[in-house]
């Protein structure tokens, strides 16, 4: 089993899901007492969030690149950035290592295409919904990406940073997300990408009339498959 390096802590709430899912999937696929071989570098999210808010993405990229190099030095053979938003600096991370980076956008797009869909709604942080780094990655796989209107984007972003990243899961916010999903479906979305790792703590397939694509689970499933694959 390959050693998977995880760049986590953004937030640790979602990184805990990465850890849990990876170990559950390995146990399911291998059996017995098998668990995932993981190396986690968990950053201080307060520092990362500050760099995000101030638009200091180059510095954020340097921070994650240094962490990624440390994971490779520690023996990691495959790398995951355990957050959608910080894939904005994926190029900087890739330049810092020689091991493969499994991009969350590629994994998600493959799942959408497997279902025969091409027009999807995206729920994520404002950075991910409004900046092109993930939308263009998805578009490169032939997908048309819809995002919520401005006030709904603000709501989705606020719930992520003020609630989900702090471990707060409320029914009121779940209902609000359901309404945003409904608007995207009404606008023609054939599926909904849960494009922030914390969103899976709040909503799932039962909250949508169209297929939901949970990026955390999809990312971990792909990583476990790669880790277990024969050379």
UniProtKB/TrEMBL annotation:
List, alphabetically, the Gene3D superfamilies matched. 3.40.50.1860
Keywords associated with the record: Isomerase
Q: Which InterPro entries match?
A: Asp/Glu/hydantoin_racemase, Asp/Glu_race, Asp_race
Q: Please verify whether the record's keywords include Phosphoprotein.
A: no
Which family, according to the similarity comment?
Answer: Belongs to the aspartate/glutamate racemases family.
What is the name of this protein? Answer: Aspartate/glutamate racemase family protein
